[in-house]
Records
---
Amino acid sequence: MKKTNLKAACLGGALVVLFLIGWESYLRQSGFICSYNDDESLWAATRRNIYQATPAGPVIVGTSRAKFDIDLQTWEGITGKAPVQLAIVGTTPRPVLQDLASDPNFKGTLILDVMEPLFFQPNGSFAEVSATKRLAYYPKWSLSQQASFVINRQLEDHLLFLDEEKFSVNALIKRLPIASRPGVFVFPVFPLNLEYGLPNRQTSFTDSFLTDTAAQAEVKGVWARMGLTSTKRGVGGDTLTNIIRSVAKSVDQIRARGGQVVFVRFPSSGEVWNAEQQAYPRELYWERLLKETGVTGIHFADYPELSRYKCPEWSHLSPADAKSFTKDLTRIIETKTKWSLQNAVSQNIP
């Protein structure tokens, strides 16, 4: 390499390093905290743990509500075993349920999050996209991708700018103020200070979001634009019948191998809860689902200890509420299912 080229390369490298140092410093001074990429690799790494699932450490399948509302550390402190968190933001859990049902080696316990607006989406809907991508990725997860994942995990412990969901070029481009137009729906973006993720796929609101009423109002507006406050009746007729039948088939496959399933309806509040009650009446959806699948269901509205919470943005619990919610949920699950969640549950751990 010529001397001139070497100098240029060194100068370019120095500028890149200075830029990254400046970018990292700016993010830290802006109050952001470390958050781990909840990408296909993290999901694949988590899915490998499903074969050790038990009632004390179940597999959790569902939406973002399951990721926010079950505090994995609290659960592990009660039962002695951590759950396997497979919930995926913004997607119906049915594809993952079908995948586990088709896996002859899965014989464990499953907690299934029933968020009606996503759970009862028809086959082929947009709500399946994220789930199908991860299901397709898992069996093809190569050794090089696994090695890259391990290395990246070590870097994510220390560098904020590696959060691709917030600070990558594509993520920042998506934050440009581009309005929807006829035939093109532009998904609204969430506040940058909304949440953070942990390596175990736990998701929680940040402290700054919980004290920022303007940001909370912004997210409520996002839910409205995405239809979560719509009172339009959900799917019915043959579509609903086929959805419930497919769920029943998957549940039967898991049970046939000795596995167990429980449905949980996590809390919502405000306009979202009001809309869900009108769009998805319990007798037509929740009750029918339980009856035709024969699965034990725990609906937050049936228990004072689960229904006492107010979601900051109408749809997910705060970290503090998730801890107490998880304690109460484990006790209710043990009572209703007669599963043994170890003695710790019965000892009323504070």
---
Amino acid sequence: MLSNLIRSEQHFELIESAIGWLESGGRIALITLVNIEGNAPYPVGTQMLVREDGVFRGQITGGCAEQAIADQAVHQIKAGQNSVQRYGLGSPYFDIQLPCGSGIDVFIDVGQSLRDLQCIQQGLEQRKIVPFEIKSERLSFIKKYYPTPRLFLLGQGPILVSCAKLALETGLDVLCVAQNEATLKLLKRASLVGVGLNEYRDFSEVYDKHTGVVSLFHEHDLEIAILSQALASEAFYIGALGSKKTHAARLDSLRTEHINEVNLARIHGPVGVDIMAKTPPQIAISIVSQVIDSYNKSID
């Protein structure tokens, strides 16, 4: 079933690129944001990748200093030396200013081995959190690589399609199981892949602690077995579409399956952040926002 997973464009991009560039005989620098003084658009641990010809991928400052960082990284690659560089407040590069007068420190690592990167990639493919120590004379920093979170969508209608599109835009992988042929056609029209509900009943291979599930069924008797299975898993998020009355009936049905109250409380129902959403895209925004909020809290 996971062969039908739709991959976000952000899926392991830097690690895959680094491996590819090294395998082709190139030299690289992996740059990690290790300290922020003030505010910054990206959190500590964010990375960029630079090739010896100056081509780079990733963002650390939102466009303010990427070219300067890449230029310095090329210099460090040629010198064969790692380096910690300051940009913005307190930096020797007076012509590079960061928003709100902030300062950042980045570690430019030119010694990443192909074997280490392949180990990181393997761990991520196995859905593991991979800690990686970044060390120099001036710092010791643990960078954690997280598997790409995924959103498992089941049900029918345009809300499912809007959720899938928005989730992909925000960096989540997506798996869609459509209740009917009409929803499969909607997915295809949106250039998305979906599978029919009648093809599967056991979804246990899908669930892990980096997976969220949203039930978007209109016939709610179809979701009870699916929600029971989700509640038995480590899924970081479980949500279900419907009114408060519908959700109360849903919980009663799940109680007959001997689901305890602690587990029942894991279900977000009615699903989504209350933004007075009126249309399928607005409802999708409310749902995906709640999913992202839950995931970010789960990995803090």
---
Amino acid sequence: MQTSIEQTRDRGNFTDLCVLLVEDDEIMRMSLADRLQLESIPVRAVADTASARKELKKGGIDLVVTDILLPDGTGIELFSDISHNFPGIPVILMTAYGDISDAVATVKAGALDYLTKPFDINDFIQSVTHQLSSIADIQLIASDAGEEIIHFKPGSGCLGKSSAMRKIERLVARLKESDSSVLLTGESGVGKEVVANLIHQNSLRSQGPMVSVNCAALPSTLIESELFGHEKGAFTGATHQRKGFFEQAQGGTIFLDEIAEVSPDIQVKLLRVLQEREFQRVGGSIPVPLDVRVIAATQVNLDESIEKNEFRSDLYWRLNVIKIDIPPLRQRREDIVYLARQFVSRLVQSKQGAVKGLSKEAEFYLQSMTYPGNVRELKNIIERAVVFCDGPWISENDLSITEHKVLENDATTLKESIEAAERKSITRALAENHGKINQTADSLGISRKNLWQKMKRYGIGK
């Protein structure tokens, strides 16, 4: 019979992952580090938060295990620092009995787990390997068409390099063993379906179907039949039994996009299905058991819809077990060039064209644009630019052909207007000076240090 450690080890190979162990007690630090190495888990072991921060800056850390009480601070402070400066790196806390309340509060704030000292070293290894297993061997369908499979680690930047998107990746990773309903909110084009695909591919249902339904595109007269199917003879034209989207998704996930567009009578039926976990085909009398994970999405403020009696509050709370709000692209501008480069790479590979990538001037120009259509709009801009590009590098002119506006009137306050104008001036100056910092700073009449600070603030040139 296998031990729990042997069973855990069988779940994955962690030799390409690294644990940062932060423990001031030398004997315990050495003991835990030795056991991790015995389990073929790479580890860097340090005694204080200052050393931990140095290791984090070096990169290559996939999981942090830290004591709460440390000589120069606390593990809770270190967790806060990681959340802000190294988003995506999960944290496990080790705590004495008297500090459990602090550990619990930190777990609620986003830490993965905590271990109470003294603990069995096998429990320690099991906790570490369990968390590493959620990082390793995760696959997702990242493209809209679903033909591209990418391996990623939560927080590594699969959805974007901004802290907001890396936090979403971490949240998705924590949903791996959950079957709860998820509500995705955000403007049109932010990537709600991409996140839904990621949730499905990272779930225990990944081997089952992923069925996407655009509720707004379903005719009101046929929506019930489309969702739940119908029996032969249920209505004129029903010449045979048909499985609806819910039945097609059995064993997998159903993604209900634009859920706010569903009519009140269908909302009632959806509520009953989610409550009773069964449905009936139109014209049928036999309940069909439901084995489906539901992910819904909307760009509408459902709280306002509930106040207007346009959306049922009871259905809202059935869907809103886990809520993920995806910010618009203009609020995570560090993702613009990051995503644009990915789009260019995929288009070049698929079309085998002569385009090598984006010029520096083009990247600065992209950062000066406004994106009311969010990531979908950015993708379209890049696709057109690849078509129009005559040389090996996409230029600013190739992008301007797409007739998109730079940031101008999308600000709503004086502060936002000033920031938009400043961002536009900086990106334009960088493009004119071919990205050279000293020349750009001189042309703007500011110091090199001031320019770097402003570029960092606005997410320019990263």
---
Amino acid sequence: MEALSASTPAAFDERLAAASQGAPGPERVPVLPRQPRTLCDTGLEPRFVASLVVKALHASGKTALSVLTGRLHLSTSVVREVLQALIAEQQVEVAWCGESDIDVHYQLTAFGVRAATEYLAESRYVGPAPVTLDAYCAVLAQQSLRQHAAARITPAELHAALADDSIEPAVRELLGAALHSHRPLMLYGPSGSGKTTLARKLARLYQEPVAVPHAVLIKHEIVQIHDPALHAAPRQSRVLEDRRSCDARWVLCQRPLVHTGAELTRDMLELHSDAASGVLRAPPQLLANNGLLVLDDIGRQRVPADEVLYRLLGALERGTDHVAVPGGASHALPFDASLVLATSLVPESVLDDSCLRRIGYRIPVGPLSEKAYRALLRRQCLLRNIDADEGAINYLIDELHRRTRRPLLPALPHELLGRIADFAGFAGRVPRFDVDSVAQAWSSLFSPMAALESSNLGEIQ
């Protein structure tokens, strides 16, 4: 995997914010679905919500109304409506009352404990109430980057995002056109050319938050969608709306970036059962909904590249992917993500013509010019507080790169400076970018035999 850019996230966000200032049109602020006031408003069957309440009481014993609403992510009025029905059925009873009508504790009766056993045999899930599949599809469509009213990336925003990458103007134009089209794009070039870094920067161009459900109910099965590792909180610190009026079954997040590489297998694209929690785990393509799905190292997976791409490209065109349930049938689930492919192989060597035609843009990402490489090296030295000796820079380019015919790849300065810092730290001295340190770092990165050979063996020339 390519090294991440040395540009700091804070600096990137400042440039992007500056580029966005003065952009025409009002700011698009997503609105979380409104809070359901009645059980009917949730779209869920009464028995299903009752099972969640009963299992929650079974897990915690005597429980306050406020704790139940917080655990189930449902409004007080909805939970109270369900509790009243359960009290009428003698499955729940009031354990304690305070001075206010919401200061109430509930507990299960003997009938309730018996019902909890039956509910747990059906599903062990105790957590936020899911949303319906119809509600999920509607919100995805509203937030889709493919909708006509969706914001488009401006040249200024793209320039700000790629300011530190020294990308050629023609390549930047290609990227801009691909982003404008929202069609799948492929980045190809030698390993170390910065394809993964570039893909991550493209994902961060989409700043507006989106609503993501904790879970979705699909034919009586619960599929977990929200993943805190992928669905980060929005960068905007301001309050977007009164959260008390919003459906707490949804979370406001950044548009997700989901990255998979050579580890991708067939079964990873299907639903996975988690027996401990009682839910089905969504595959990466569904976790990327309303965001960016990066398939890295195309051609190096254990599953044929054509097979994976035909499935995902077809799913993008249909807007749905048929995802299998372990030991059961498949479900047609919504799929709406921007697809970015990356490979260090020649695209024609891993994909057939039909598949390549369905990829909107194929964009080469290659070595830097000498001027850009020198600028990147100085910039990364500055970020690491390492003095950049011009003689050492000349030695790196003229002696090491040219003599070994190694291309000026963006990943190398980052890797070399990291090794210089490692050697200096071990020796207890201040790291310096001088000829001796560069030679030592280079030698540790490339074996003596490899240093005499071209680095492009089997890769893009």
